[in-house]
Design brief:
elongated, two-stranded antiparallel sheet, alpha+beta, two-stranded antiparallel ribbon
Length: 89
């Protein structure tokens, strides 16, 4: 079932209108398998969850890789802060 349809069902179950910002959402996801952009509201729930999880995992991996290669300016050891001195100096 598509996200758009699930929102309609939720509005009936909850007896509340779908928030207007959800109806006006204009977010597209580029499908690598289809080689085209897809409106996320036209995605099935399971597909959306998989895409979301993959995007989150990719962003987390990028942060971990960046942190692994970065040297902090200040390091704290046993409550004492040490400032990194520029190696060129």
């Amino acid at each position: 079932m598509k996200l758009r349809d699930l929102l309609k069902i939720e509005s009936v179950v909850d007896k509340r209108a779908v928030p207007s910002d959800m109806l006006e959402l204009d977010i597209e996801y580029f499908s690598e398998s289809r080689q085209e952009s897809i409106d996320i509201m036209d995605m099935h729930l399971v597909h959306f969850i998989r895409v979301y999880a993959k995007m989150h995992e990719d962003q987390y991996s990028e942060l971990i890789n960046a942190a692994a290669h970065a040297k902090p300016d200040i390091v704290q050891i046993d409550g004492i802060k040490y400032r990194r001195v520029n190696d060129a100096e």
